[in-house]
Amino acid sequence: LMKRKTHVKINRKEVMLAKLRKSCSCTPKKLKNFVMDFLPVLRWLPKYKCKEYIWGDVMSGLVIGIILVPQAIAYSLLAGLKPIYSLYTSFFANIIYFLMGTSRHVSVGIFSLISLMVGQVVDRELLLAGFDLNDDAPPALGHGSLQNDSQSNTTAFNLTIAGMDAECGKECYAIGIATALTFVAGVYQVLMGIFRLGFVSMYLSESVLDGFATGASLTILTAQVKYLIGIKIPRSQGYGMLVITWINLFRNISQANLCDVITSAICIVVLVTAKELGDQYKHKLKFPLPTELVVIVVATLVSHYGKLNEVYASSVSGAIPTGFTPPKVPHFNLMLRVAVDALPLAIVSFVFTVSLSEMCAKKYAYTIRANQEMFAVGFCNIIPSFFHSFATSAALAKTLVKTSTGCQTQVSGVISAMVVLLVLLFLAPLFYSLQKCVLACIIIVSLRGALRKFRDVPARYHMNKVDTLVWLVTMSASALISTEIGLLVGIVFSMLCIIVRTQRPRTALLGQIQDTSFYEDDGEYENLSSVPKVKIFRFEAPLYYANRNYFLKSLYRLTNLDPNLEAARRKKYEKKEKQHLKKGDHTTANGLGIGETTLQLVPKKIDFQTLVVDCSSISFLDTTGVNTLKEILKDYKDLNISVLLACCNPSVIDSLKRGGYFGKDFGSMQEMLFYSIHNAVQFAKDQK
């Protein structure tokens, strides 16, 4: 006989007050710990093993820096911003994460998916403000609050902030939207860290994240096709952007630039070949080949000396200034416009960063603090937003490269930032003649990993059909509707799948494994022996309001007995018997004698006297669940069938006690509740 422990009731009010007093108290030691926790670099940098770590950190930092420069310039196309802002973003993100991050290996910076989400918001706001989304529109300014010059195809926007009028062109307004969006996303992340809302990431399952990334990759691919073939069409906005873009591409296919098509074909062949060779011989290479950098350098030289822009009208990156522009506070008015858009951006940025951090920590046997990661990525957005940067996140591809090239700590991030700084201060103008189609090729080839997820669909389907369905729905919604809606659809659909699973769970009658005290599903296993006069019913889900009816229907179907119908049939029969007796007829309605009536009251189909409910899979009961069990207890009792519960967990037992299932004094509890199915079966046999 097991006896429950008596738990001391906790005064939650006093506990809360004690925690509040502790958190509000300030001592030198506590202040020091707070600073050290907020800036983890202060803990690990003094213990840095220079001789052991420096070579790996320098090598990985240089490799990531070399990869980062061309990717940063390329991803500016996704964000709808000038390349210089992508370089700013890459520089500041690496420095801030070095100070605040807890992962040793994650590479934080510009990320294609985040750039796409920023670019969609930027394009929408530019369109609403009256700007032309044509990338090649000259950046001239007009006068007035909102003017359009049909000849020069330029727009000026008069932005009123804090009572001051500031005339702002397309580029200025675009980076204003991006910085406001980034600042708000960073604030959300910091607030989530303060209120410890990291659990939000639990609702983004692996299937949802993979589907979201794949759907967004299709959107990114579609957005880059116009650069590949040199068609000058504005970027599509709103829902169904992928379909609309492809329709516009086919309508304007005659405008394709032959120079861009040839350049794109050559670049894609070179990049894909180099990537495949790199993957094949990665165990022999100490660091990955800087293919993107080589392609960019060669393409820039060919474009410059071949005058591809002047002769063939091929689109080029244009002037990239050197140095840093003065810091500027993001516009509050613009923050209000993008406050809703910043929420999915903040969640996706945080989830990818924490997921990669946990992956690296598990692989290299150290721990991270998820809450501090939220602070780190939040400040990687807040602080750079004052320096004309946009949203960042951890990137899988660069993180894998970082770990494979010997990275030991985030010192490698500082080295990468120095490489970007070198480009910012001296080398940026050299990329003036770089064709946009080359940047588009780099983006498309970088999507190989996400697009390869389509090859995994059969294996995914074989492993779990529901997860595959979640992946397909999320991917389709992200690609065909929009990335934000796709994420929301994926989360809601995955939750609905869980609800449906609990609404219609597996149910079974159990049989006894011969010569043992164990019982299993009679429909799944052979050679199980049924227990005479006993039915054992298993329900593999919590019992609550949404699956109450399914519980009852399954129970009645498997036991081949609905107690309500049987009770009604008996009442009807008894009523007929009384009518016959009143008339003086000594035969029953069935033509039998009165002495034989008793046999007819118990129909032949009731082949059991005890029902055992296996509650091992019932994790909790709500009020409806308790009432349902009380209902079957009463209904079967009317038919002289006893109901026994087995394998209930403490939570279920407490719910039954509070619901009055065992009576007021729990006197009959030992005859109704058993800790194993076998005990319940033995009790039923003894009762006979």
From TrEMBL:
<dbReference type="InterPro" id="IPR036513">
    <property type="entry name" value="STAS_dom_sf"/>
</dbReference>
<feature type="transmembrane region" description="Helical">
    <location>
        <begin position="53"/>
        <end position="77"/>
    </location>
</feature>
<keyword id="KW-0597">Phosphoprotein</keyword>
<feature type="transmembrane region" description="Helical">
    <location>
        <begin position="106"/>
        <end position="122"/>
    </location>
</feature>
<keyword id="KW-1133">Transmembrane helix</keyword>
<dbReference type="InterPro" id="IPR011547">
    <property type="entry name" value="SLC26A/SulP_dom"/>
</dbReference>
<dbReference type="GO" id="GO:0016324">
    <property type="term" value="C:apical plasma membrane"/>
</dbReference>
<dbReference type="InterPro" id="IPR001902">
    <property type="entry name" value="SLC26A/SulP_fam"/>
</dbReference>
<keyword id="KW-1003">Cell membrane</keyword>
<keyword id="KW-0812">Transmembrane</keyword>
<feature type="domain" description="STAS">
    <location>
        <begin position="524"/>
        <end position="684"/>
    </location>
</feature>
<keyword id="KW-0472">Membrane</keyword>
<dbReference type="InterPro" id="IPR018045">
    <property type="entry name" value="S04_transporter_CS"/>
</dbReference>
<dbReference type="InterPro" id="IPR002645">
    <property type="entry name" value="STAS_dom"/>
</dbReference>
<dbReference type="GO" id="GO:0008271">
    <property type="term" value="F:secondary active sulfate transmembrane transporter activity"/>
</dbReference>
<feature type="transmembrane region" description="Helical">
    <location>
        <begin position="249"/>
        <end position="273"/>
    </location>
</feature>
<keyword id="KW-0325">Glycoprotein</keyword>
<keyword id="KW-0813">Transport</keyword>
<comment type="similarity">
    <text>Belongs to the SLC26A/SulP transporter (TC 2.A.53) family.</text>
</comment>
<feature type="transmembrane region" description="Helical">
    <location>
        <begin position="471"/>
        <end position="500"/>
    </location>
</feature>
<feature type="transmembrane region" description="Helical">
    <location>
        <begin position="375"/>
        <end position="397"/>
    </location>
</feature>
<feature type="transmembrane region" description="Helical">
    <location>
        <begin position="409"/>
        <end position="427"/>
    </location>
</feature>
<feature type="transmembrane region" description="Helical">
    <location>
        <begin position="334"/>
        <end position="354"/>
    </location>
</feature>
<protein>
    <recommendedName>
        <fullName>Sulfate transporter</fullName>
    </recommendedName>
</protein>
<feature type="transmembrane region" description="Helical">
    <location>
        <begin position="207"/>
        <end position="229"/>
    </location>
</feature>
<dbReference type="Pfam" id="PF01740">
    <property type="entry name" value="STAS"/>
</dbReference>
<feature type="transmembrane region" description="Helical">
    <location>
        <begin position="173"/>
        <end position="195"/>
    </location>
</feature>
<dbReference type="Pfam" id="PF00916">
    <property type="entry name" value="Sulfate_transp"/>
</dbReference>
